[in-house]
Amino acid sequence: MPEIAPVPLSQLTTLRVGGMPRRMVEAATTDELVAALRDVWDDGERWLVVGGGSNLLFGDDEFDGTVVLVRTSGIERLPSPHPGRVRLKVQAGHNWDDLVAQTVAAGLSGIEAMSGIPGTTGAAPIQNVGAYGQEIVESLVEVELIDEATGEVSVVPASDLGLGLRTSVLKKHYGSVPERSAVILSVTLELTQVGHGDVPVRGAQLRSALGLEPDAAVSLAWIRETVLDIRSRKGMVLDEDDHDTWSAGSFFQNPIVSAQFAATLPPEAPRWSMAPEPEADRVIPLDRFDGFIPPRSDGPAPVKISAAWLIEQAGMRKGFRLPGSRASLSTKHALALTNRGRATAEEVAALARLIQQRVQSEFGVLLQPEPVLFDVEL
Hints:
Elements: E1 3-4, E2 21-27, H1 30-43, E3 46-50, E4 56-58, E5 63-70, E6 75-79, E7 85-91, H2 96-105, E8 108-109, E9 130-131, E10 134-135, E11 140-147, E12 153-157, E13 182-193, E14 199-200, H3 204-210, E15 217-218, H4 220-233, E16 256-257, H5 259-262, E17 271-273, E18 303-305, H6 307-313, E19 327-329, E20 337-339, H7 345-363, E21 372-374
Parallel strand pairs: 2-5, 3-5, 4-21
Antiparallel strand pairs: 1-2, 6-7, 7-13, 8-13, 9-10, 11-12, 11-13, 14-15, 16-18, 17-18, 19-20
């Protein structure tokens, strides 16, 4: 098994915090990854899988266990049973933004709005990554994974992963264990072949973020470039020289609340209806009609509200930090907790706790952390 000399997690995470593990293994192939995981699980020791380290807040203490680094890569193009579409099987360790760039260059639509998101492809389904209204659930076909309970490798359809807002059955939520303890080995996506010309932009939230009218048409390359520009201005594209990017991205999830609760917030509070886009009329052939027509939902749709707005209105503006702390809110975006240089995990956690307390006191909303917290408490 490819064991390497351990290094602190602070060198492997975008927040740049985290203690030293006792043991570290690097897997460059799927076979190496499977063998490493089976070995760790057979020994019954504590373990942690790390890809890009962009969604992890790891504690300061030494870790008496094994860190498995996923360094697999590669994209395999596969046929799709649906005309005009293409399937891509991507290795878990493949850089996510590199994948997005390659799909845009190939004229494949489905993940272009998720440009600039750091991390690896195998981590994307775990929290159903998304940006500007586009989520991986819309293009995910299946994943290949290995289960801790059995050590067996299997292919699991996307419908069995419980994909929701930044969640799945594979995600370790704060204060709980995942419903299914497994590690993704590869991801299969189905994308639409649209070419390099201008195409209509689906999704009101994406059109709004890009400043587009409902009938606007633009190229995939234009969408990618615009999204990268937006994310860069918010400090959400990794930059070695910019401490605002020394973060785990958005630290808190945008809360989903009832329409009734959203109505109690000030009118200027940013909000987005979670109602689905209107569907075209469906025609069911008589030979397939079973007599049942799914009812339409007539109740008010849930509403997503801006966590960044809640944080700022609770008195913590961009750049806010506790006295003497080396962790602060980003100077560009109030939703990112950043390391200003040599911050500890506890300093980041202390800031997160204060944010939770103030927002809950002011608005009655308990913000939920988006990153995985390992050996650190809020």
